[in-house]
Design brief:
This protein is of the alpha/beta class. It has helices at residues 20-29, 64-67, 72-88, 111-124, 133-137, 141-150, 199-204, 233-246, 264-278, 289-292, 299-313, and strands spanning 5-13, 34-35, 50-51, 103-106, 156-159, 191-198, 208-209, 211-220, 255-257, 285-286, 315-316, 339-340, 345-352, 356-363, 369-370. The protein is built from eleven helices and 15 strands. The strands form five sheets. A seven-stranded mixed beta sheet has the order 6-1-8-14-13-9-10. A hairpin with a 3-residue loop joins strand 13 and strand 14.
């Protein structure tokens, strides 16, 4: 990247905690966030296990009149944004011109609102449907609500991928990335927000950085709506582009947080891609999804946070439930506990349905002040 960009704030809402420290501890210790749906939960009849986020009082982030009409995903996004901005010590309008701040939020939209209103339409007819259905379910409402609440008036965008998947896996070890017995992903819910600043701006206001965003790569498999290219060529090119953008070589990567969804074809294709790019010098690899579930649009940010924390702590979290590694997915897997290693560069992969591939490379912060963890 041509200009230094640094992570100065992180906010997370996940099945294993609502702080960066809690989430990283869960990833290192294996404290799972996967469980059966609570009694009375709308998914109780159709899902055996998933990662459920915490109950949140929407009035903590919105006025009561508005809290009643927003979807849960918006509330989670607002909580993550609140915590990220507080973590960064950044106040829009005081520390930065509102027109110089942007909001980019990814998500699948207000599916809970849509499902609830479909039931109401069936039971009560069209006049029973809430007039707030449309603004409640639109995928851009996460970005919109964050911008409104914090007075952010610059570039705003929402990234939505048509990603719908279900898994009915029974047992405590339902998600087993790269394991011989893996049989499908387990969904989780969550939200994550990063505050990104130019390093010069962060230095000017005395902010401490977590990590530099050194580079990124993006490709598309152009292969199938849900199945990756078997040879992993799209994912491999994505990682190569990220390395090139970061100006580093494969051996410089000290840890790779894999997309690792616990699907037969996905894990195999990703492992193949990693071997293609790194050869026999594969970095230590692990997947966070065995603990958190697949949080879809939120996974990339949460797993980037895990990667950054691994670098700062010098402690690489393992892939939990990886008891019988698939020989076809042979890599330098971190298993049975965290690995203490000092690293200077980490990579995080996110590969979505539709063949969308993103790889991010983070390095130690170039700001004058570094976060202590």
């Amino acid at each position: 990247m041509t200009e230094g960009v640094v992570v100065t704030g992180m906010g997370l809402v996940t099945p294993v905690g609502t702080s960066v420290a809690e989430v990283f501890d869960a990833l290192c210790t294996g404290r799972s966030g996967l469980s059966r749906p609570p009694e009375g939960h709308p998914l109780a009849a159709s899902v055996d296990v998933a990662g459920f986020g915490p109950e949140i009082d929407a009035t903590t982030v919105l006025p009561a009149t508005e809290a009643r009409v927003v979807d849960r995903y918006v509330v989670m996004a607002l909580c993550a944004a609140r915590d990220a901005l507080a973590d960064a010590g950044l106040v829009v309008g005081r520390d930065v011109d509102p027109y110089r701040v942007g909001v980019i939020v990814s998500g699948t939209g207000g599916l809970a609102t849509l499902e609830a209103q479909v039931v109401i339409r069936t039971q009560r007819g069209r006049l029973g449907v809430s007039p707030y259905l449309l603004p409640g379910m639109l995928p851009n409402m996460g970005a919109a609500r964050i911008a409104i609440k914090y007075g952010i008036q610059g570039y705003s965008s929402s990234i939505a991928t048509a990603c719908a998947a279900g898994a009915q896996s029974i047992g405590e070890a339902a998600s087993r990335p790269f394991d011989r017995r893996r049989n499908g992903l387990v969904l989780g819910e969550g939200a994550g927000v990063f505050v990104l600043e130019r390093a010069a701006h962060a230095d000017a206001r005395g902010a401490a950085g977590y990590a530099d965003v050194l580079g990124w790569g993006a490709t598309n498999d152009a292969h199938h709506p849900t199945t990756p290219r078997p040879d992993g060529s799209g994912a491999a090119e994505c990682m190569r582009r990220a390395l090139s953008d970061a100006g580093i070589a494969g051996p410089d990567v000290g840890y790779l947080n894999a997309h690792g969804t616990s699907t037969k074809l996905g894990d195999l294709a990703e492992a193949t891609a990693i071997r293609t790019v790194f050869g026999t010098q594969s970095p230590p690899v692990s997947s966070s999804k065995a603990v958190t579930g697949h949080m879809l649009g939120a996974s990339g940010v949460v797993e980037s946070a895990a990667s950054v924390m691994a670098m700062l702590h010098g402690l690489l979290p393992p892939t939990h439930n990886l008891d019988d590694p698939d020989p076809a997915c042979e890599l330098d897997h971190i298993r049975k506990g965290p690995r203490a290693v000092e690293v200077d560069h980490v990579m995080s992969n996110s590969f979505g349905f539709g063949g969308h591939n993103i790889s991010l490379v983070f390095g130690r912060p170039s700001t004058r002040h570094t976060r202590t963890v």
